[in-house]
Structures are given as C-alpha cells and as structure tokens.
Design goal:
Layout lengths: L1 H20 L2 E4 L2 E3 L11 E3 L2 E4 L5 H10 L41 H10 L7 H8 L12 H11 L27 E2 L24 H4 L10 H11 L10 E2 L3 E2 L4
Parallel strand pairs: 5-6
Antiparallel strand pairs: 1-4, 2-3, 4-7
Length: 255
Amino acid sequence: MQKSIFILIFLAQLTFESAQHNKMVPIKEGSFVPLYGATTKDPVSVKTFFLDVYPVTNIEYLKFIKKNSNYSKSKIKGIFADKSYLAYWKNDFDFGNVNPKAPVTNVSWFAAKKYCECQGKRLPTIDEWEYAAMANERKIDARTKTEFNKYILSWYEKSKTYENEIGKTFKNYWGVYDMHGLVWEWTFDFNSSFLSGESRKDKSEDKNLFCGAGSVNATDLMDYAAFMRYAFRASLKAQYSTRNLGFRCAGARQQ
C-alpha cells in the first residue's frame, strides 16, 4: 500500500514538473540590429511571441516518443535524422542513466520541429531567439555589457554542460532560463543568415567558404558570442544531431 502511494506521489510530481517546464512567457514586440540577416544596419522588428521558459528535457521528449514511435531512435528515417540521433539513449524508450530534467540533445531539426508541432507550438526563428537571448537579468539588450559577454564566452570553454539540469542558469529579463550556459538550440530558419554562391545561383563562389567570409557583412565585429552561434548554425544540416544541441519551442500565445 505504501509503495503504491509513493508511486502515485512520484508520478504526480513528474506531471506537475512537466507542466512547469512546458510554461511559456511572452516576449514583447521590439526591434534590434541582428549580427546577420539584415540587408542594412537598420533594426529588424520582432512581433510579440511566446517562448518556452526552459529547453525540452529528456523526460518530456520521452513522452513525445511514446506517442510518436516513428521518431524513436530505431525507427526514424535516415532522411530525418543522422546516425547520432538520440545516441546517448539506452534504447527507444529509455534515455539511460542521465538526468530526466537535463535537456534532450542529439535531436535533429526535423524531430525538434515535429515535437513542437505536436505541442501546438513551433521552433523560434533566429531573430526571435537572438532577440530573447540578448537580455540579461535586468536589460532587454545587454550585448554591450562586458560581464554578459564574458559569461557567454566562458560557457563555450566548459564541457558537458548538457548534462546539467534545466533552470540552473540565470533568469533573464523575460523570465526565460538557459538561453546561454546549457546547450545550443535549433531555430526554425537555422541556416538562413549566410548566403553562399549556390544559394544565389552564382557558381563562382565556393559554398563551403561562406562561413569564413561572412564577417564582411556583420553588423558588430566585436560580438564574438553571436559569431559563434551563427557559424555553428550555418554548419548544420536539418538531419544533423549532436550531443550539445537541443531546442525549445515558441508560439503565438501561451499554451
């Protein structure tokens, strides 16, 4: 009897925590000058949207897999995910000896997009993500703050932060956690900011060199942290998955 009560309490706690993790907050409309993507240095407008407070966790992704088994590691089609998809999971329905509340990683863009759609949400755009991520605890735009940039760059020097539990980094101005300091994150238009010769139908340029040449069109040559994010995104293909790459969802309203 006591064992049954304990199990019920444990399941109720997981349900409550999952609901908390799924919480979204409004990111109010505004404008900013992105590092890339704008044809001029004029600000781009971002309309009000909602963003998950936390990245998606292992336990949350497991629930998705159980309802969508064709996205399990043994059944997902190669066109939608490479061989490292959920590589650290023990099997299709067991993420092994990792923290349930740690962010799920080794997830392809296709799978992340599908997960968000099943929640009635979507992946954030690059502009939305960067707009929300430029805030520190007090300011909407903290990109010129030395300590803020030092914090981000110091994270890049650390290893295995993806093993940490969500919600242990700072809470930013919007009420969002873990934009920096935990994992890299997919965006809907992750590879749209850099143009290659091929994308412009101009075969005179080597499409494999556009990342290095991209700094010519950057709006802030000193924003090293943003350089690293844009370069990382540009190196990806939609079926790629890596151990330090996770995601969170966005939407037009609170779910």
